[in-house]
Batch of 2 targets.
Target 1
Amino acid sequence: MVTDFIRISRSPALKGACEISGAKNAVLVIMASTILAAGKSILRNVPVSSDVLTMIELLEYFGAEIYFDQVDNRIEIDSSTIVQSEVCPNIMSRMRASFLVMGPLLARFGRASMALPGGCSIGQRPIDYHLINFKKMGVIIEEDAYYLKATCQQLQARRLVLEYPSVGATENILMAATLTSGITEIVNAALEPEVQDLINILKKMGANISVQAPATIVIQGVEQLQPVEYAVMPDRLEAGSLLLAAAITGGEISIPNAQPHVMDVFLLKLEQMGHTIITGDDGRGIFLQATSKPQAVSFKTGPYPGFPTDLQAPMMVAQTLADGVSIIEETVFENRLLHIKELQKMGAKIEQHGTKAIVTGVNQLVGASVVASDIRASCALVLAGLVAHGPTHMTGLVHFDRGYDRLREKLTQLGGRVERFSSEILGIEDKLDQQAL
Ligand code: UD1
């Protein structure tokens, strides 16, 4: 059996300029939204990641015709040929975000069927907020332990209240509501920048959507939406990861296409650590110069505009080498601290108490054989490897490939020593363990 692994070696301070790719969390739902507008939509700034390829596979399975220019990061999706509305279980098992086609399918065809997504390593991740609210909109849902079938004659506009501002539930209901006659309100909606990006493309398609303070999305249904050309927003999570790579290695980085206004709390925390942050006058671009004496900071993840849960793991790496003690609380996903065990193997001093981590800064990390448990943990472990003494070997690359477009190449361009290999599992794992320490 063949497996891929990444070897990360202690690297010099990362320095240089780097453009970030389109946002993974925005592009998936935006691709799903093209179902709503029969015809050919063109998306630009599309990252090349395995999740995007999976979403292409799913839309093609439905009958869409797709052309993806991976060099130009441009994708054409002709959704006029869609005939199928059943998500095949194999695709659902690879990517939970497949569930985001439910809203558009219900709005356009009045039916959607799929295997239930189930839990994953970062937590149970139920879909009750999606289902409860679709039912309130008149959808009949038949489900057993593995499968659900949703049908409706006509979606009904309602005032819907989310118990928690779930990103996926907000997006799914929002898409369904665009073609629902009357006014739908989503109260306590998620307002993550990726949700805003979805609103922007839907408005360009002709949807009538407004956002009312503090967090209500109001949708006045329209009869139909038009296909459009749209550029996906830059990935704030990739920007954060690259800023941390420079910060951790004591370097400096400029990201000309980053959007600082969607990263406020994260940038504040970097400043509190002692790093210098300069943002572009025109609202674009972030420059970071690392301090040589980083101070530990505490933070708690939360819905936007709070500290993003997707940057919790990489930010934890920065705390492992900072001066002092950091208390990190994960409030969004109940099991998103699996990277602690891997960082401990690398010499990090971290105690876990439920969903809290207490990180005491140490002088150095050491290379080890580590396993990535989810997309963001994979990035965190690569960052830790950049400063560890001795090589780090990371497996579990399926997660790394799902979430990032050429991140390894970007880190290498900045001076990071990150190499990818394929190997026979049997035999080489033992050698890796011996080499690693
Ligand atoms: C999206 C992002 C993910 C990010 C997360 C939070 C994508 C493809 N993924 O995931 O990277 O970390 O937002 O910013 O965009 N919940 C329920 N019932 C539901 C739905 C959610 O209890 O029906 C819970 C979840 O288990 C979790 C919390 O709500 O504890 C937040 O989940 P949600 O905001 O829905 O995250 P995703 O949309 O799955």
Target 2
Amino acid sequence: MAILYADDPADAAAWAVAIRALAPGVELRFWPDSGPADEVDFAIVGGKAPGDLRGFANLRAIQSTWAGVNHLLADSNLPFDRPLARMVDQGLTVSMTEFIVLHVLDSARQGPRLRAAQRARQWLDLDPVAPGTIVVAVLGLGTLGADAATRLVALGFSVRGWSRSRKEIAGIESFAGSDGFKACLSGAHILVCLLPLTDDTRGILGAAAFAPLARGAVLIQAARGAHLVEADLLAALQSGQLSRAVLDVFAPEPLPVDHVFWRHPQVTVTPHVAAITRPGTGAADIVENYRRALAGETLINQVDRAKGY
Ligand code: NAP
């Protein structure tokens, strides 16, 4: 019986320390040194498999260290008939909330205008904007969206959220389904995307999403690159419907060096660093899921392959 670590080799030592601290007796192997294939009963992967994992006949389950599993669900190197768990990690959730709050506050406090004024040595007399007058629409009210939205409520913003099913979260106006999409976006000043990438959400950040927003709205996109219709974003920035976009994720990654976003004055590019799983906090669910896999139990955060997340 062995766990095969088949994620980023650079993180292998940290994961090994964190997993062994919780489960000292566990046998850990590291891709591509898997040992006898029939001894591997659990695999840890990242955004995609490093090679063909279909030959492990006794593999009970696969654990991703990433929250988003869209690449894994389409990965032909993985067996499609084994349970797959996505990562929910307190460290990752906290980092994503920091990223969203950072950029919402930067917009609310008119950071881009102030930085431009400094470059021009201009003493800008700005009136403060009360956060309650700023409407933030969060697409995706799951683990990450709900946490970020809750923090924004605590900071006094007017927060709406959109999800497949309606939510009851204190202070957040909840919208659901295709009927609720436009209502959630209508008049919003800041649009945050924390949706999983599925067939239903691919290309969702396009002209139809930007049109109902308040003129000059800001997009904060930290979900998956393929949510965004790049041409529609550029047109919305050009027309003034959007004033600015903060983009952490791209299709493809890394963002090509000649891409227009790198030097666009209204676009902030960050290299998919909004939130990263931390082994110290992420290992607990992995160890528990290993136990569950061996016991034939449903995994924590088991992916619903039909829903795609
Ligand atoms: P999650 O807990 O699965 O939440 C997903 C949310 O999206 C849920 O509220 C879900 O609605 C909603 N949703 C899904 N499909 C929908 C649809 N068709 N219409 C309306 N709402 C829909 O996921 P999470 O852990 O919050 O992560 C969200 C995404 O963040 C990940 O999938 C990943 O792509 C991205 N991410 C990015 C980074 C980064 O560093 N940039 C790091 C981690 C994750 P229900 O609640 O009704 O199911």
